[in-house]
Design brief:
The protein is of the alpha/beta class. The protein has helices at about 10-15, 20-25, 30-40, 40-50, 65-70, 90-100, 100-115, 130-145, 175-180, 210-215, 220-225, 225-230, 265-270, 305-310, 330-340, 350-365, 375-385, 400-415, 415-420, and strands at about 80-85, 120-125, 160-165, 205-210, 235, 235-240, 240-245, 255-260, 280-285, 295, 320-325. The relative contact order is 0.12.
């Protein structure tokens, strides 16, 4: 198994200067945008994106071309780049922001041309100080060169880009919470409907919200073709994707591959196997929000649909491997603690439920567990996400609450004995 290098080609070939405009232009940067603005049409761009069959790389996996087509008509429309990459185990957008920001800017120019947008925003995770500086510098370089501002590339198109740094809240990765934060409000998700961003988004205007990796893919698609992009990967999961591999493996990192290989191939070939030649007990296929898969499920293909068929999701592309010695109860507790801490507090099931889940898991882990704790855990999970199914049913405005239950449900489904052994034994009196 080898990587297929599209998005990361420039940064690999020019590791020291890939963030600079001169380096990006030297490698053909902005040629696609210039061509599109001078001789293309919004309709032709949209058709190329649709024919590529690219699906959003932020987690939901919605077809990008279809999403663009939902944008309501209005004199004012916005593009917002969701660079609030805060999911534990996910670090693929960071390298795109830090090492090739002009690729993102060019993708934004093409997207805004297709959607008749003249104002765009890049919302960057608060902890990403260096990537934010790199992006801001790249935006300033683009303005100086006439690639942003009035009549860019000598065309009739105007485009302004604003870089906005978040305050370190995971919840702002949810698109409507991000929009609230961008407006200077509390980072709380909005009710849908009516606040579907494509209809009522930033400042109540139609808004496209796309992930960094998604928009960074646009220049390659336009420089080649949607058909060429669709030829990579497999049906339903086309193109390449950057996966963040971590956990108990020998060679962690970001890898750009065509979708369709198995997780086992991925770990052995690019991850160089499990540390100390141990076996995998469980793994997370798509970030902290995703239900776990067992170690005997490494033959599952790395596609959106194949992972979904196994009751999980490819999500943010974060693959976390846990070896045979992993204390899965503590692993679940760590994830639940994260979600409890990051809850915005707006919805009672999430605000109260995640805290209770954390407390019960802590009680069991510390040897103070009760015989009733397993049933209690599942009951609390059911109150947050009724039926404990996947995709989850929700009692909350956004998926953060149900995401907190994923690790617990996985633990109880496949590794219940590891929890039961920590509980006091039932005594039968004769």
């Amino acid at each position: 198994m080898k990587e297929t290098i599209l998005l990361t080609k420039h940064m690999r070939e020019n590791p020291e200067e890939s963030h600079l405009l001169k380096s990006y232009e030297k490698n053909g940067g902005y040629k696609g945008a210039k061509k599109v603005l001078k001789s293309g049409s919004p309709e032709s761009v949209l058709e190329e994106i649709k024919s590529s069959n690219i699906r959003g790389r932020g987690g939901a996996g919605f077809p990008t071309g279809v999403k663009w087509g939902f944008l309501a008509e209005d004199e004012e429309r916005y593009l917002v780049i969701n660079a609030d990459e805060s999911e534990p185990g996910t670090f693929k957008d960071r390298i795109l922001l830090e090492r090739d920001p002009h690729q993102l800017i060019e993708g934004m120019i093409i997207t805004c041309f297709a959607a008749n947008i003249s104002k765009a925003f890049i919302y960057i995770r608060g902890e990403y100080a260096k990537p934010a500086r790199r992006v801001q510098n790249a935006v300033e370089q683009a303005y100086e060169k006439g690639y942003l501002g009035k009549n860019i590339f000598g065309s009739a198109m105007d485009l302004d880009i604003v870089v906005h740094l978040g305050a370190g809240a995971y919840i702002c990765g949810e698109e409507t919470a991000l929009l609230n934060s961008l407006e200077g409000r509390r980072g709380e998700p909005r009710l849908k409907p009516p606040f579907f961003p494509a209809v009522k988004g930033l400042y109540n205007k139609p808004t496209l919200v796309n992930n960094v990796e998604t928009i960074s893919s646009v220049p390659w698609i336009m420089n080649n073709s949607g058909k060429d992009y669709a030829s990579l990967g497999v049906e339903g999961s086309t193109g390449t994707r950057i996966f963040s591999l971590s956990g108990h493996i020998n060679n962690p990192g970001n890898y750009e591959i065509e979708m369709g290989s198995s997780f086992g191939e991925f770990v052995e070939s690019l991850g160089k196997g499990v540390r100390n030649k141990k076996s995998i007990k469980a793994y997370i296929p798509g970030g902290a929000s995703a239900p776990w898969l067992r170690g005997d499920q490494l033959d599952v293909k790395m596609t959106i649909d194949d992972v979904a068929n196994e009751g999980s999701m490819l999500g943010s592309g974060a693959v976390v491997m846990m070896d045979e010695d992993t204390n899965l109860l503590l692993a679940a507790k760590s994830l639940v603690s994260f979600f409890a801490h990051e809850s915005c507090g707006q919805c009672t099931p999430c605000r109260e439920g995640t805290t209770w889940l954390e407390n019960i898991l802590d009680r069991i882990a510390s040897g103070r567990g009760r015989l009733s704790d397993i049933d209690l855990l599942l009951d609390v999970c059911d109150n947050i996400s009724p039926g404990l199914t996947w995709p989850p049913k929700m009692t909350t405005i956004c998926p953060l609450g149900p995401s907190a239950t994923a690790s617990i449900v996985s633990l109880m489904k496949d590794f219940r004995s590891e929890v039961e052994i920590l509980l006091p034994k039932k005594v039968v009196l004769s």
